[in-house]
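Journal club prep, shared notes

We agreed each person brings one worked example of a sequence with its structure written out as tokens. Mine is G-protein coupled receptors family 1 profile domain-containing protein. I'm keeping it raw so we can talk through how to read the token line rather than staring at a rendered picture. Sequence first:
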Amino acid sequence: VRFCHSRLHNISCRKPQRLQDAMLFYNLLCLISLVTVIMNLLVIISITHFRQLQSPTNLLILSLAVSDFLVGLLLIPAEILLTDSCWFLGSTLCALYYMTDFTITSSSIGSIMLISIDRYLAICDPLHYNTKVTVNRVRFCVCACWLCALIYNSLIFTDYFIDPDAVSSCYGECILVVSHVTGNVDLICTFIGPITVIVVLYVRIFMVVVSQARSMQSKIVALQQTVTMSAIKSELKAARTLGIVILVFIACLCPYYIPSFTGEDIEERNSTTFIVSWLWLLNSCVNPFVYASFYPWFRKTIKLWINLVYLMFVFASHCNFLLESQK
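Then the structure, token by token:
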């Protein structure tokens, strides 16, 4: 038996055994982390670099991309280390890690909800959208979203910071146990509330799109067949978008809150919650494809950055060749 602290056998945790069959699993997790970082970084660079892309909607996508980028850069590698080795950074940093985890994911949920509100105003109230939704107001909402996520999780983790060793049974362990009461509060604030808002807004959007399509169909007689096909395509597109947004979000988030529904405490380091946590972190890898990859500007900026990297590589190779030829 190998211990995290070889000189403290009586109070040290056993060191996790890394199986050879798990190599494929760890490589897959590293690939997910890399894809999450690269895809969200492309979104961040594209929106921040090109001023014409800095619209209110894109700023909300930028906020989502920043939180998902931090998930891929910080949280996923930390989860890999926690799975494969002992925790040697102390109980205080363990508590800080979990607070960072919860803060980043809370801000991601808030960004998704703000995107839903933005789409609702753009489709259901298009005449007043430009006056209601401005760049400055969106920036304020994004800052408020991150600040509220930080304050909320600071309150959640108050007791944990006071005595971070209360739930640890041995040295080299980093676990988090969320009580049933705290889990219920978190269930309402980060699951039931956002899910309700998103579902209500997107159902309303779907109803408005269907109503507009039927209105066009009844008024235009000469192009009845064409409009009918257009109406059907519009309904299907709205339904498809609604399904992608809601199903991906619920599929990745719902399993984590099953213990809260059953009245159990949430323990972050048991085997079941480990799988559920990875499913939720995987959502950060999916978000860029759902919210950004369908935008034409995102595909164009990807091509631009790929061409730029290629030209820089060619230029560096040419300069290296000239330097070697001069020698």
